[in-house]
Amino acid sequence: MTIRLYNTMRRQKEDLETGIAGQVSMYVCGVTVYDRSHIGHARCYVAFDVVYRYLRHAGFQVRYVRNFTDVDDKIIRRAAELGVGPRDLASDNIALFHQDMDLLGCLRPDVEPRVTDHIPEIIRTIQDILDRGHGYVAAGSVYFDIATFPAYGRLSGRALEEMQAGASERVEDDPHKKDPMDFVLWKPAKPGEPAWESPWGPGRPGWHIECSAMSRTHLGETFDIHGGGKDLVFPHHENEVAQSEAASGHSPFVRYWMHNGFVNINAEKMSKSLGNFFTIAEVLERYHPEALRLFLLGTHYRSPLNFSDAILEETTARLEYLYETLLAVDEAVAAGGPEGGSHPGLELLDGVSSRVREAMDDDFNTAAALGHLSELARLANETVKSRRKTPGRLEVLRKVREVASTVSSIFGILARPPAKALEEIRRLDCHRRCVDPSDVEACIRRRAMARQEKDFAASDRIRDDLAGRGVQLMDTPAGTAWKLLKRTGEEP
Description:
It is a single chain. Helices cover 47% and strands 14% of the residues. By secondary structure, it is of the alpha/beta class. The chain folds into three domains: 4-280, Rossmann fold (3-Layer(aba) Sandwich); 309-416, Four Helix Bundle (Hemerythrin (Met), subunit A); 435-484. The strands form five sheets. Strands 4-3-9-10 form a four-stranded parallel beta sheet, sandwiched between helices. Strands 5-6-7-8 form a four-stranded antiparallel beta sheet. A hairpin with a 2-residue loop joins strand 14 and strand 15. It is elongated and about 90 Å long.
């Protein structure tokens, strides 16, 4: 089946037809590294990480570029507040960004260009815009001349008079602009700020021109997929289209535009002013990285996503259930049994794999694709519980593991050894619920001693006390195990 994806430019799903057969060139707008990345960034980069993974799984050779904006007004201000150099601040935050992405299981892009390493390419792109008559110089600044680009507004679908609210770097009372809608390509140096020499005097790039120059450098004047958050459609990506096509004289600049939806916190827009702004690091102090990733992929990338502790608790329970299933499968395979024989589960597994592919081929629908994991887990658990002599039992369990491995490679979940993952989940669960594992183990030892002394009343009190704290004890021939009781709404 052909991969279909929603193209923001045409507002419809289209078959993926790349510039070079079997190859995909993809650019995703990166972060401005003035601070730690937040869960809105996580949503974007996990979504496009799965696009990258699935395209490779589907047999494409993918060149994935994601930039860093490492010079910017916010970076300069934050560096001054902290008493450090802007480049040092940017480098530190790039390292923290990589740390966050690595924990989330995001693969590194093939190229991660920094703005400050591409100043000559930016200057060259601006000069091409001027040479083609789409820009002008005024008081040391270079502006893009909107009037010379009639197609402006095509991506966002906005009329020209609608395009003022929220437009970065547009100051209506700037006396040097021909039109208040014109935007800056190069800004003159200010005392104490980073600056580079240019044909228009010392200064630094405007925000929008950076991505045009870096995508042009690493992917060419036309490439296949450009991605980013929905908030970038206007003005950033609209300006990229104008700049890039004005500089090259070629259209289209990008074949397919993809944009992920916003993240809301408890049904409200995420905002520092509302006190509901969370960094990735803050969330990962409380929840397992794969639980956050599973949560982010549980909603189609174009739809808005509602973030809440309750939903993450539910997702954690689901992840725990999936890993418990894989652990049971591994133990059953290790225990062995008769080889050979047919089993209806093999056909069911083929159906699950087919439905996952169909969902992903339909605009990378991770929500629908991951929904089929419940079918996989149900079949796996039923097969584990079946008699060891059941024909084809081992073949089904091994195939379950193969499908789980494919799921891991595409979605970046179920990637750890099950026992290790379950221990990580329990440790974070204990931290979140203020349960001390060493205290639980001490209570279990006291209970064992009470039972040995036949003081069953004391034994029951200890069990009941732990249950009241959310800890369930399980007596087995090998000793007493424990786990945290699931909260209401946590059933997978």
